[in-house]
Amino acid sequence: MTVSAPSVGDRAAVDFASLLSTRASRMNASAIREILKITQQPDVISFAGGLPAPELFPLEDVRRAADTVLTKYGPSALQYSTTEGHLPLREWIANRAGITPGHVQIVTGSQQGLDLLGKILINEGDVVLVEAPTYLGALQSFQPYGPQYVEVPTDEHGIDTDALEGVLRANQAKFLYAIPNFQNPTGRTLSLERRRRLLELTAQYGVLVLEDDPYGKLRFTGEELPNLYELGLEMVGGDPDRNHVIYSSSFSKTLVPGLRDAWVQAAKPIIEKLVQAKQGADLHTPTLNQMIIAELVEDVLPRQIKTVKQAYGVRARDMVARIREFLPAEVEHTTPEGGMFLWMTLPGEIDTQPLLAQAVERKVAFVPGSPFYALGGGHNTMRLSYSSATPTQIETGIRALGETIRAAME
Which residues form the domain of 90? Predict the structure, then answer.
């Protein structure tokens, strides 16, 4: 007896949702990216996205570097390459850090680095320590791997290391995720004293530190501090394979974001697994992009950092001045020493989620603070970015934001 296949009309509709993995069910859309969709109207002043200023991009330098690379390397610049990354670029990074290229992995944007580190480090139910608040993109990267988040309190000097000691004593954590320099979202900087204490405590309890440092070179006021990786290396006599800090940084904020070049530096057992994870993700970061970056790092990058720092410093001071001029005195704010963001805390009865819609009606946008808290909270907070705003936009936008907040307080 021959059984005919059911006709198209007889087939049951595919329940795609039921076929997705548990990991997929943990994925959430980025709150920031969703907000950016809302604010695409040209008349909306957006302080929402952490976008580098496009008018500062070194377009001619990138064009010349691309020509140089294609002339120097020919077809090799357009060919598949090694997973670890373009060796001259890895050597440049390693030399600055006092390590070997074997301790450096190039990744396609620091976001990929966070995802791959989550993949190789997090088992279902592992305790991951995060700042309260912390970078939303890191939470989005780690969440599919099933961590159990434990928040570490912060204040105006960054992570509260006294509180951290209690958290470490109470939890068997896998790693601490931290942004010591001009933290996203608050703009705060971890003090040198706390950096040293943080490393002592995490080493004592056998907890890795994942240091995310995309903004560290963008200091426009105050004294530059050593990063956690440098201090960790110092603690172990310069041996990178004994350093319990994993360091992540990027060329996106200092040079250009569109080339999507970033890196991770860590002990070799971590790097070896990152290589394997990256092979399964995208084989390697685009060869041409890496070669272009390598042509720019010696000459153009230092000049670009100087240009960006100066511009962001002016914009940050302008935004702080306008906040003090136009916002109610009850609104608290951070005063960043670098980076791209500042943080505002409103009177407790105001929820910034519905406030955003009211602000957009006045043609200004921000990011509500609650998505930056792994365990909820922060309903009366918001993040503002000044990096890509003009003086006129800052004045007009902060004035409109002040009107929105005052209306909500009535």
Answer: 80-297
Q: Tell me the C-alpha distance between 185 and 49, whole Å.
A: 11
**Is 74 domain-assigned?**
no
Specify the range with the lowest mean pLDDT, choosing from 194-198, 209-213, 406-410: 406-410
Residues 94 and 183 in one domain: yes
Summarize pLDDT for 331-357 with one digit per residue, the tens: 999 999 999 999 999 998 999 999 999
Tens-place pLDDT, residues 76-104: 999 999 999 999 999 999 999 999 999 99
Q: Rounded to whole angstroms, how far apart are CA atoms 272 and 103?
A: 9
Looking at the fold, whether 334 and 254 belong to one and the same domain comes out as: no
* Domain boundary, last residue among 253, 274, 297: 297
Counting the structural domains of the chain, the total is 2
Question: Closest Cα to residue 378, out of 139, 197, 162, 195?
Answer: 139
If one counts every other C-beta atom within 10 angstroms of the C-beta of residue 172, the result is 10
- Inform me whether the pLDDT recorded for 30 exceeds 70: no
How wide is the angle at C-alpha 293 spanned by C-alphas 292 and 299, nearest 5°?
105
Position 344 in a domain: yes
Question: Would you state the pLDDT for residue 7?
Answer: 61
| 240 in the same domain as 137 | yes
Distance CA 40, CA 360 (A): 11
What mean pLDDT do residues 22-43 have? 73
Q: Is the pLDDT of residue 137 over 80?
A: yes
Peptide bond into 133 cis (omega under 30): yes
CATH value at residue 261:
3.40.640.10
* Mean pLDDT, rounded, of the chain: 94
Same domain for 180 and 86, yes or no, is: yes
Hey, what are 279's tokens?
A: 């092979």
133 shares a domain with 220: yes
CB-based contacts of 62, cutoff 8 Å, min separation 6 = 256, 259, 292, 296
Tally: H helices and E strands in the chain: 15, 14
Tell me if 66 sits within 8 A of 226, measured CB to CB. Answer: no
* Per-residue pLDDT tens digits for 43-83: 899 999 889 999 999 999 999 999 999 999 999 999 999 99
| Contact status, residue 383 vs residue 354, Cβ threshold 8 Å | no
Give the integer Cα–Cα distance in Å for 228 and 365: 34
**CB within 8 A of 1, min separation 6: which ones?**
none
341-345: strand order across its sheet: 332-333, 341-345, 381-385, 367-368
